[in-house]
């Protein structure tokens, strides 16, 4: 290779490098421009109105209050959200707020108020299938509380036919509970099994524990002590994981009843005492009283009349408070 | 090796020139920002001492007639554990800061940012020199108004409890008056009886009448004796009550007009803060750490 050609080669490689560099910068600039413009392109995102935002904020605050167990606060927030939704004729928002308020009233035991709100929601023509399904589900729960299993069944079927979604397992749990209340244990067990599967698939932990508890209750009714105990303990594990005191106490009372009915008095006493401790420390007086009543009964059945009397006295003292 | 391509001729020179232009540009920008921020403006320092450093912070703006003329340079504790606040002031404003100027810790608006407000001094007095001391005065805020009203309220409370005290002078006086009127009734009945029996026993009447008169006389005397100090006290009480009401009225009159704008401002500030927080919540990456709120159905538990 002579000197001349070497010089040419060096120059041409420099030029190539320079052009490559320029090309890369050009590409980078185009990329940056496209990246920026992609954000500007297309229709602008629709911003909700102030009223929608405010209603939504109140609903969120209410949902948080429900999680904390502050039903009164939740109701007042939902009421504000409802007012705003009414002021802008947001039908879906109105229905959702009514259903949520009904659920809280039902939790509080005010069945009349709950039914009134549910019926208003159900009478609204332009609401989504999901909202209507939830309203029907709440209606079924009310009928079950009133022990009207026929109507409850009718409404839960309606709910399932309208919308299934991730809460199908919850609907099936209620179907199982209705069958259980009617004394149809085999049907209830089959439904509870299906509900358990759906809840696991949909990762609905609370409802999974509910399915397990329902299976435990059915098995206890059928006299399957071992099976029932196993399912109660599984439900208890999940409820502990979720930190749901009410359900923990419910499982412990279930285990107490199971032990008592099978003659394991000391086990029953231990379970009831645990249930009492949980309810008392969670501030749930109603459940604490229930646990003391059952504990007194367990002592009586075990032959310890003195202790039974003491527990009853403790129950009366708590009631007075 | 010699460069023959014209594009690479004098490359070093071109790069150097480009570099110099960039450096000059950066320096010019820095200088402009400096001028803009008053870094090159001549300044001087003055100070004042306060008992507590609450409400002051370094960099706190110093204003004169609403214009920023400086800031707090430093806060330090002196030998007597008092707080020395040193202000750094732009020299060009020194002409207005005279020996009788005052530094007042106040707020922009009633609940706005804290500032040091410097009052314009008397031009006939000498200006405060570098390192000089300016007088300090604390502005009257809502806390001071409340503190001012507190003794008035306590006074009113005392007066009411004094009036209501069953063992107190007023209640006792009223009880005495009641007894007195009952005594007078008996006296009147006695007098009536005397008149009825006038014809039968004039001598008895005269002695009875004189007795009655004596009784009345002594009653009136004792009433006078008791009533005089009571009336004095009542007068004093009324004076106190009048004074207290006047001070209270004054305090309320001063405070009341400030309350509605204060509430409005508070509401506006809250609304602005909410807006800022809402916007912040929507920003990346903050929004990634915020749990998506539940805004729909709460989904009732099948076991509730």
The CATH topology label of the domain at 1-37 and 46-127 in chain A is: Serine Threonine Protein Phosphatase 5, Tetratricopeptide repeat
Coarse shape of chain A: extended
Distance between the termini of chain B: 90 Å
SS elements, strand count of chain A: 0
CATH class division of the domain at 1-37 and 46-127 in chain A = Mainly Alpha
Helix content of chain B: 40-55%
Please estimate the helix content of chain A: over 70%
User: What is the strand tally of chain B?
Assistant: 8
Oligomerization: heterodimer
Strand order of the largest sheet of chain B: 7-1-4-3-2-6-5-8
The largest β sheet of chain B comes out as: 8 strands, mixed
* Average pLDDT rating of chain A: 88
Give the second-level CATH assignment, the architecture of the domain at 1-37 and 46-127 in chain A: Alpha Horseshoe
- Approximately how much beta-strand content do the residues of chain B carry? 15-25%
Assign an overall shape of chain B. elongated
Helix count from the secondary structure assignment of chain B: 6
The largest inter-chain interface, given as chain pair and residues per side, is: A-B, 37 and 18 residues
Number of helices of chain A: 15
What is the terminal-to-terminal distance of chain A?
A: 107 Å
Could you please describe the fold and organization of this structure?
The complex is a heterodimer of chains A (321) and B (304). Chain A has 321 residues and is an all-alpha fold. Chain A has a domain at 1-37 and 46-127: Serine Threonine Protein Phosphatase 5, Tetratricopeptide repeat, CATH 1.25.40. Chain A has 15 helices and no strands. Chain A is extended and about 105 Å long. By secondary structure, chain B is of the alpha/beta class. Chain B is built from 6 helices and 8 strands. An 8-stranded mixed beta sheet of chain B has the order 7-1-4-3-2-6-5-8, with no helix packed on it. In chain B, helix 2 (142-164) packs antiparallel against helix 4 (202-255) and helix 3 (169-196) runs antiparallel to helix 4. The relative contact order of chain B is 0.07. The model of chain B has no long low-confidence stretch (mean pLDDT 78). The chains are: A mainly alpha (321), B alpha/beta (304). The interface between A and B is medium-sized, with 37 and 18 residues.
């Amino acid at each position: 290779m002579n000197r001349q050609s070497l010089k040419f080669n060096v120059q041409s490689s420099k030029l190539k490098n320079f052009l490559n560099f320029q090309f890369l910068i050009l590409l980078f600039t185009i990329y940056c421009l496209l990246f920026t413009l992609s954000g500007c392109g297309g229709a602008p995102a629709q911003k909700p109105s102030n009223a929608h935002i405010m209603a939504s904020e109140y609903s969120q605050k209410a949902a948080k209050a429900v999680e904390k167990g502050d039903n009164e606060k939740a109701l007042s927030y939902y009421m504000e959200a409802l007012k705003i939704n009414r002021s802008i004729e947001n039908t879906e928002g109105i229905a959702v707020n009514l259903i949520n308020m009904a659920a809280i009233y039902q939790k509080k035991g005010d069945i009349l108020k709950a039914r009134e709100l549910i019926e208003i929601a159900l009478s609204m023509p332009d609401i989504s299938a999901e909202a209507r399904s939830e309203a029907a589900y709440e209606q079924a729960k009310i009928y079950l509380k009133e022990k009207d299993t026929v109507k409850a069944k009718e409404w839960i079927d309606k709910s399932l036919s309208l919308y299934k979604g991730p809460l199908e397992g919850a609907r099936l749990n209620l179907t199982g509970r209705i069958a259980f209340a009617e004394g149809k244990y085999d049907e209830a067990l089959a439904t509870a099994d299906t509900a358990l599967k759906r809840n696991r698939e949909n990762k609905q932990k609370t409802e999974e524990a509910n399915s397990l508890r329902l299976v435990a209750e059915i098995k206890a009714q059928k006299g399957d002590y071992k099976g029932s105990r196993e399912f109660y303990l599984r439900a208890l594990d999940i409820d502990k994981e979720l930190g749901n005191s009410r359900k923990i106490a419910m499982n412990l009372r279930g285990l107490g009843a199971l032990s008592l009915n099978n003659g394991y008095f000391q086990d029953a006493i231990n379970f009831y005492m645990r249930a009492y401790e949980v309810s008392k420390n969670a501030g749930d007086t109603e459940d604490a009283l229930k646990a003391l009543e059952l504990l007194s009964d367990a002592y009586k059945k075990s032959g310890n009349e003195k202790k039974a009397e003491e527990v009853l006295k403790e129950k009366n003292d708590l009631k007075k408070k | 090796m010699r460069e023959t391509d014209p594009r690479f001729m004098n490359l070093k020179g071109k790069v150097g020139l480009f570099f110099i232009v960039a450096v000059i540009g950066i320096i010019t920008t820095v200088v402009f920002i400096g001028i803009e921020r008053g870094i090159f403006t001549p300044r001087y320092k003055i100070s004042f001492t306060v008992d507590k450093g609450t409400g002051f912070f370094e960099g706190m703006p110093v204003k004169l007639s609403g214009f920023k003329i400086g800031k707090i340079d430093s806060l330090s504790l002196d030998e007597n554990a008092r707080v020395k606040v040193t202000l750094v002031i732009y020299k060009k404003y020194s002409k207005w800061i005279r020996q009788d100027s005052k530094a007042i810790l106040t707020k922009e608006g009633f609940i706005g940012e804290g500032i040091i407000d410097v009052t314009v001094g008397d031009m006939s007095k000498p200006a405060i020199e570098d390192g000089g001391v300016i007088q300090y005065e604390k502005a009257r805020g809502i806390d001071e108004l409340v503190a001012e009203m507190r003794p008035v309220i306590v006074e009113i409370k005392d007066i009411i409890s004094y009036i209501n005290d069953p063992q107190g002078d007023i209640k006792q006086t009223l009880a005495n008056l009641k007894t007195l009127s009952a005594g007078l009734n008996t006296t009147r009945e006695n007098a009536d009886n005397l008149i009825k029996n006038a014809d039968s026993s004039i001598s008895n009447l005269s002695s009875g009448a004189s007795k009655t008169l004596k009784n009345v006389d002594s009653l009136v005397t004792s009433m006078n004796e008791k009533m005089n100090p009571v009336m004095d006290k009542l007068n004093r009480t009324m004076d106190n009550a009048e004074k207290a009401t006047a001070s209270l009225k004054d305090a309320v009159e001063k405070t009341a007009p400030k309350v509605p704008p204060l509430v409005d401002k508070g509401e506006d500030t809250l609304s602005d803060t909410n807006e800022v927080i809402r916007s912040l919540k929507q920003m990346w990456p903050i929004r990634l750490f915020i749990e998506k709120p539940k805004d729909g159905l709460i989904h009732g538990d099948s076991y509730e």
